[in-house]
Amino acid sequence: MSNDEEIFFKWSPDYSVNIKTIDDQHKVLVDILNCLFVAVGKREGDKAIAGILEALMGYTQKHFTLEENLMRQAKYPELESHMEEHRKLIKELDILTKKYMLEDKPIYFEMLKFLKTWLRAHIQGVDKKYSTTLREAGFSVDAWEKEATAEFTAMSNSKKWWELWK
Ligand SMILES: [Fe+2]
Predict the structure, then answer these.
(1) pLDDT tens digit string along 18-69?
(2) Whole-structure pTM over 0.85, yes or no?
(3) How many A from CA of 122 to the centre of ligand 1?
(4) Residue 20 CA, ligand 1 centroid: distance in Å
(5) Contact 131, 23 (CB under 8 A)
(6) Under 8 Å CB-to-CB from 67, ≥6 apart: which residues?
(7) Fewer CB within a 10 Å sphere, N or C end of the chain?
(8) Can you give the residue ranges of every domain in the chain?
(9) Could you tell me which CATH class the domain 18-164 is placed in?
């Protein structure tokens, strides 16, 4: 990515929840969406796109699990409604992925637009709301972070798609 204007989803400091690990994970999700955008633009083909969708689903689930665990540990009162938002997105992502695989008509841009809008609104809406509670509770994300980073590295190395957008 040489030109800023070519970036589909640009990270902004406005999206920060003031918890580094969570911001880093959100940035990875943004990167995966950018990667999908590039792959679609370059007409990389079904295999590459399916690989990115798989990574997106896997990483999203990992990330949600972390958030939910931290909220649970912090006894965050809005845990249930937050989890419901996560469940809805996973369901929607599943529907969109299946639609992509079953239908000929390209739905990539519909999907990209939806995911970008969802992620931005979710981070700036409900994610920012847990920030104070989580920071006050204090927590350890070290173990999770190590595990998630190792898994993601393995996922990136095993697939060529990650190089596409760099
Ligand atoms: Fe969330």
Answers:
(1) 888 899 889 999 999 999 898 888 888 778 888 888 889 888 998 999 899 8
(2) no
(3) 6
(4) 14
(5) no
(6) 22, 82, 86, 127, 130
(7) C
(8) 18-164
(9) mainly alpha
